[in-house]
Amino acid sequence: MDKEGDNVSPSLSNINSLYLSSCNLTKIPGALRYLDNVVYLDLSSNKINGVIPSWVWENWKDQLISLNLSNNMFTILEKSPSLVHMPQLELLDLSFNRLEGNIPVPVTNVEAILDYSNNNFSSIEPDFGKYVTNSIYLDLSKNKLNGHLPSSICSAKQLDMLDLSYNNFSGSVPSCLIESGELSTLKLRENQLHGMLPENIQEGGMFQTIDLNGNQFEGKLPRSLSNCQDLVLLDVGNNWIVDSFPSWLGVLPQLRVPILSSNQFNGTIRNTKGDGPSINNFTSLQILDLASNNFCGNLPKGWFNELKAMMGNGNDQGQVLGHATNFSTRFYQDTVSITFKGLELSFTKMLSTFKAIDFSNNSFDGPIPESIGRLVSLHGLNLSHNNFAGQIPSQFSNFSQLEALDLSWNKLSGEIPQDLTSLTSLEWLDLSYNNLSGRIPRGNQFLTFSNGSFEGNVGLCGLPLSKQCSTPPSISPSAASPPESNSLWQDKLGAILLFAFVGLGFGVGFALSLVLRLRWRIEGWLCKH
């Protein structure tokens, strides 16, 4: 190519693969349009802006296998085609640009990955589903698409992953989209979808991830979700679902992350065997979010004994949650949003080693079960804004990996266990607005917490609060010498006097020491009797 990029050397005319990713290009080299045999073209992660020229579609439409224009600054497609016949296309990636208008839908004869995410597209073919029948991966997330989801989407029988999240889709979800159970990943997060969730998911459903967070779904959770034996993540947070605690989900062997927060779930959490241990109940859980619902009653003592995955890391090396597509180069990562360290955080790369429980903003009461202390691999525990009473279990000192603990706005009483100072991973603590009393423990992480961690407990004293304690701090047995008895102290003092009186003369001094020792023994006898 020459300096202007408008001419091409005859020796380059046979190029079929061109990878120009991350080359700081500011425009598409004009000479590319004269290459006749391009099959793979990668211009991703550059600084190219403006128009995607129509010749990109027209010149190579019969032969192009992979086209990656992602992570640039394109704003529009020339001629803005709605349908593009590209029979050999396996990958089209236009993600992370500024593209507007119609989404170009390639009509292919092979399995294809189509990624249009993170743009400003506002429209797509009304029945786009019938044109992507060979697609296995379709990502339309984070655009400005609206309208109803067409039932034609169910025509895409090969589809493995569908992400329509962060758009303005409205109406109900086509029942075939969920009931067929053919998808492994369905993400409809943050739209305006409403209505009842489809009830009849087929047995053997392939779902691994279902994310419906931030819509207006109502009614109950479909009991047929228990047919999805491969389900790993279920997120129905921020909807209008009215139901009891779905204990029936406990039979799913792979379920790691159920997010039920900000709905109208109600009632108590019950064991299948009362307070005794249940059988194979939620054994793979790593995150459980029940925050901001209407749950009530005591937490069953034995229920936490079944959360085996939270009791230790075992051989888990920290895999990223997600799954591979049929294309080995594409790995789809699950995203989870939870409250952690007092902030609403979105984990776009969730490791299987991260463990957290959030029961905040409910009406749970009674004591906090000591059995929670067995969940030694917890990183976050939030029981705030409930009616828990009684003392903070000393078993919390078992949480060697705990980073955030929130017990605020409850009715907890008694002293803060001194053993909690052993939690050297603890970065965030909130015990405010309870009925706690006594001296705030000192040492390790407790030296770093501010006044806000303990305010609203009138009985607490000591740093970091301004209220000082009336008694000196207790000294642990290991740091203090054993107390001496009165008789032992008297014996020592007598010996000291004996030597002191020697200076007055041995006889007089000896006599005085005997008199004083006899007087102390008589006084001691009188105190006892």
From TrEMBL:
Q: Which residues cross the membrane?
A: 493-516
**Major place of residence:** membrane
Checking InterPro entries in the record gives: Leu-rich_rpt, Leu-rich_rpt_typical-subtyp, LRR_dom_sf, RLP23-like
- GO CC annotation: plasma membrane
Topology relative to the membrane, per the entry? Single-pass type I membrane protein
The subcellular location is:
Cell membrane
SMART domains per UniProt: LRR_TYP
Q: Which Pfam families match?
A: LRR_1, LRR_8
Q: What keywords is this UniProt entry annotated with?
A: Brassinosteroid signaling pathway, Cell membrane, Glycoprotein, Leucine-rich repeat, Membrane, Repeat, Signal, Transmembrane, Transmembrane helix
Which biological process terms from the Gene Ontology are attached to this UniProt entry?
A: brassinosteroid mediated signaling pathway
Q: Which family does it belong to?
A: Belongs to the RLP family.
Please report the name of this protein according to its UniProt entry.
Leucine-rich repeat-containing N-terminal plant-type domain-containing protein
UniProt organism field: Brachypodium distachyon (Purple false brome)
